[in-house]
Amino acid sequence: MAKRSLAWILVFSGVCAWFAFAGPDAKPTRNNGTEKEKQKTEVAVLGVIHGSHLRSKAYSVDHVVEIVRRFRPESVFVEIPPARFAEILAVVDRKGFRTRAADVKDTTWIRAFPELYRGILPLRHEMKFEVVPVSGWSPEVNADRRSFWSGAGKSAEQMQRHAIYSRVSREFAAIRKREGGIENAAFYNSRHYADLRQLERTLWSASFDHGLGRGGEVAINRAHFGHIDKALKTRRGRRILIVYGAAHRYWFLKELEARSDVQLVDMIPYLSK
Predict the structure, then answer these.
(1) Tell me, what's the pLDDT at 38?
(2) Is the Cβ–Cβ distance between 134 and 77 less than 8 Å?
(3) Nearest alpha-carbon partner for 77 in 225, 191, 218, 197
(4) Computed from CA positions of residues 26, 31, 32, 35, in that sequence, does the dihedral angle turn out positive or negative?
(5) Backbone torsions φ then ψ of 80, nearest 5 degrees
(6) Are 223 and 213 in contact (CB under 8 A)?
(7) Cα separation of 92 and 99, whole Å?
(8) Ranges under pLDDT 70 in the chain
(9) pLDDT tens-digit map of 70-102
């Protein structure tokens, strides 16, 4: 019990300071265009678990497909960099729902996202929804991360910070396990999960963002949401589903809740089989 209390005290110690300068902007975006432009856009955020969908029975790729069918989006925003989108679509369209990781070997990191190459991308033909790439990942982001962890990130000070973060991360992992782990889609799409993830990533950000550059927690989430914001501005009044790693959901929810042009839709009712 003492270890658990210490871990969470360490998390909360950095929260207030971090939010003062690094958290999502608190002010809503105001729009002064025509009445049509002011029509609210329905937006939901589906938190996914990437490669773990292949190991989960209850939150499988097939379940993700059914969730999208129930939601009936007009547009689906996905975790793919715009610069790689055409290349990835060309690969997936050759195989459709039969696509396997080996088929997308030339698209590097997309292999980790079976919910996309085995689910949502092939499904777009059946449901006729638009797929919009909104990921901020780039070679520069990866380079900044590699540079830090191969250099300054190995210092004694950084290792001490990492040890503290690891203790908190283990507490979070224990909570996920108690909630059913990768079998519980509702947990990954709950406010409880988003709040816990925000606390965990707050500590990560306070500990390492100064050295991670474009690969830091704040920088990458701002890059991701920058693409989302741009896409939303040209799709007013539509029904939109954002499908993204659950770890980013806390950031997106805060940004979306601050907007006057968005009606945020709860994902939970669409998860039931």
Answers:
(1) 63
(2) yes
(3) 225
(4) negative
(5) -130, 135
(6) no
(7) 6
(8) 1-38, 95-109, 273
(9) 999 999 999 999 988 988 888 888 766 666 666
Give the predicted TM-score (pTM) of the model: 0.83
Measured CA to CA, the distance from residue 164 to residue 158 in angstroms comes to 10
C-alpha count within 13 angstroms, C-beta hemisphere, residue 20:
5
Residue 207 one-letter amino acid: S
Backbone phi and psi for residue 250, each to the nearest 5 degrees, phi listed first: -60, -40
Amino acid in position 194: A
Nearest-angstrom CA–CA distance, 261 and 270: 23
Distance CA 179, CA 49 (A): 15
* Structural domain boundaries enclosing 22: 2-270
What's the chain's Rg over C-alpha atoms? Answer: 19
- Which amino acid would we find at residue 117? Y
Number of domains forming the structure of the chain: 1
Q: Is residue 264 within a helix (H) or strand (E), and if so which, with residue range?
A: strand 262-264
| Per-residue pLDDT tens over the stretch 224-243 | 999 999 999 999 999 999 99
**Strand intervals (E) in 83-191:** 130-133
Distance CA 258, CA 30 (A): 10
- Look up residue 116 and give its DSSP letter: I
